[in-house]
Amino acid sequence: MNRFYVTTPIYYVNDVPHIGHAYTTIAADVLARHHRQLGEEVFFLTGTDEHGNPAARAARKRGITPMEHANEMVVKFKELVKRVNATNDFFIRTTDPEHILAVQLFIQQLYDKGDIYLKSYSGLYCSSCEAFYSEKELVAGKCPDHGTVPETVEEENYFFRLSAYQQQLLDYYDSHSDFVRPATRFNEARSFIEQGLEDISISRATLEWGIPVPWDESQVVYVWVDALLNYITALRYAKKDEDLVPKFWPADYHLMAKDILKFHAVIWPALLMASGYELPRHLFVHGYLLLGGQKMSKTRGNVLDPFEIINRYGVDPFRFYCFREVAFGQDGVISVEGFESRYNSELANDLGNLVSRTVAMIAKYNQALVPQPPAGSEDFSEEVQRLAADTVKALEEVDLTTCLERIWQFVRSLNKYVEESAPWKLAKEDAGRNQLNNVLYNLVEGLRISAILLHPFMPTATCEILRRLGHASDISALARANAVWGGAKAGARVESDVPLFPKLAT
Ligand SMILES: [Zn+2]
User: Fold this and answer.
1) pLDDT at residue 122, as a whole number
2) Which domains does the chain have, with CATH numbers?
């Protein structure tokens, strides 16, 4: 049996979940559902990154311990996962004792091998925070919390010999041209490596919130190393009494936003090479959803609350809109107006209305039973075969937007087919009966196949479409293998109901 392992980054608990988290989680869920439809054994991992200075700082601000803070934030992230209807197989927390132990074993092994050594580290230190800051974290050169200029302080840290892996990384990139997708991100990562790699500090000596370095408990593991390792450590304990590493590693896809590319495309593969693990098959790097042309962030105060959108419009339209509006992999602008316009034209009109019309015509002309198409009648089998192949290929490359566009071309062609074949005219002609049955059957069949293909994007609405067309909507009915022409059963009873996507007043 083929296997598929997909991950989101683990989400950092210094802030509440926002639309960016929802975006990556839904993308991973689309892939997970698609691969389950293909009959593969799937493992879909998400979770939270809970250590490090910013998380500790957020806790201190609130007057609680970092663990208390993390426990509260995790509830919100788990809620987000549920609300976007994600089917993750496990939710990892980097404060899980099993993760902590596995991280310690991992870096102990690198230390024993000689890939980790002690060296003095110089950084920008805020004494009020008792923490180092990178220049990027400072606001106008000052501590974001205290508004004071940090001092340059030296401390002894453990360093990982990243530089030793430069050539090996370049060789790997050159022999795996699809390691990072899209191609622009591949080039970006490769050129970063080519410019030369320096060894990196992988521990902190200040009293930070993190995993103790096993051979020197005065230090904690740098939060990024701790976080990256989750992709492997989770497999060790996600399932009771079974180590899933042999089954699911290497991961097929790590999904992420572009801001964390360097960690995943350079440091992570080097750590894996050093410890003898295979590298993940692909990284997919997506862009940002922009609102008003700016990256959404709390500090800019233009956060679009995914919970609010889902409450108002439902989760399926939100999942659809995310990948329909903005080409997955690129930055793009989203807006409430854009959402409403696409919802009305594509979900309410193109799809929802087609389902209603088809069901209504079958109720009117054939006692609500899917008619038997006449032998040798015209159908869409070749078109559907091409469509099925194109959509599988698009999802293989995580091109979610092209996949949706292809399906939508088909949905539009079905709408055109209704207009051109005019069943209401055929119903009035005695000689039109066979042709009428053929048209009605083709509409049911076209919608059944559209529902199977759209299922990863809109899991609830597509099951509802199948139900209304008189079809089962269980996992076997949804299998991709059923996306071939001729599966609709004549004699099945269709069900009228309220509009699938009620039109929004704009
Ligand atoms: Zn400070």
Assistant:
1) 87
2) 335-482 (1.10.730.10)
